[in-house]
Specification:
With 216 residues, the chain is of the alpha/beta class. The protein has helices at residues 24-31, 34-37, 55-72, 137-146, 161-178, 198-215, and strands spanning 7-14, 43-51, 79-86, 93-96, 98-100, 130-132, 151-154, 183-190. It has a six-stranded mixed sheet, sandwiched between helices. Strands 5-6 form a two-stranded antiparallel sheet. Helix 1 crosses helix 6 (198-215), helix 3 (55-72) runs parallel beside helix 5 and helix 4 (137-146) packs across helix 6 (198-215). It is globular, with a radius of gyration of 16 Å. The relative contact order is 0.23. The model has no long low-confidence stretch (mean pLDDT 91).
Length: 216
């Protein structure tokens, strides 16, 4: 809406890991600039970050981003954390609604850690506990499809680092919001560049930022 402050975006991708020696999300993050991302006056790209594919890297990234969110609130009414991750099995984009309180890593993370059946945060309860994004994923998916992007809503972000960072991010976003600092989080799985090329995926990410901002 006219007159509203732009949404401050904090966008992350992942570096390489065991199955993915060259992570497309690292390139997608590198391709974003504030000028290019701002397809509307509602979008302000506050920062981008490439996260190491390990638990320590994910935790460090979320803490740093939430500290930045509190600073950004001085200039923006709303902040959104967008996390990008690759899923080699996909032929379309998946916007994840849910993150689960479980770490079951099919391969070790970049530090060699490979938990099975453990909660991400024991104080939240057991492995069946989950968090959902406040972003209207179904509405965002509908609009992105109208723009020609193949995508779907999903409730399974896996149980590897994608789900891990999303759970930590949703938890931190909820804490910021409870403190009066408006913040939301969304995880998006993308296919490999061999399936959808880099230029097309970069255009998708720019549209994603604009559509999420306009969705409110």
């Amino acid at each position: 809406m006219a007159g509203e402050a732009p949404v401050a975006y904090f966008v992350t991708g992942f570096g390489p890991f065991q199955d993915v020696p060259s992570n497309p999300t690292e390139r997608l993050v590198a391709n974003l600039t504030n000028e290019e991302a701002s397809a509307s006056t509602r979008v302000h790209l506050q920062s981008t970050l490439v996260v190491d594919v390990d638990v320590e890297g994910a935790e460090t990234a979320v803490r740093a981003l939430c500290a930045r969110v509190r600073e950004a609130e001085l200039a923006s009414r709303r902040s959104v954390l967008i996390h990008l991750g690759v899923d080699a099995s996909l032929t379309e984009y998946h916007l994840e609604r849910t993150a689960f309180n479980e770490k079951t890593f099919r391969v070790p993370d970049a530090s060699g850690y490979q938990p099975t059946g453990l909660p991400i945060c024991a104080e939240d309860g057991g492995l069946g506990c989950f968090l959902r994004t406040a972003i209207p994923v179904d509405d965002v998916v509908t609009r992105l499809r109208e723009l020609g992007h193949p995508c779907a809503a999903s409730d399974d972000a896996g149980r590897y680092l994608c789900n891990y960072i999303y759970y930590a991010s949703l938890r931190s976003a909820a804490r910021c919001t409870a403190e009066g600092v408006s913040c939301a989080s969304l995880f998006v799985h993308v296919p490999p560049f061999a399936v959808i090329d880099e230029a097309t995926q970069t255009a998708f990410v720019r549209d994603l930022l604009r559509v999420v901002a306009e969705a409110g």
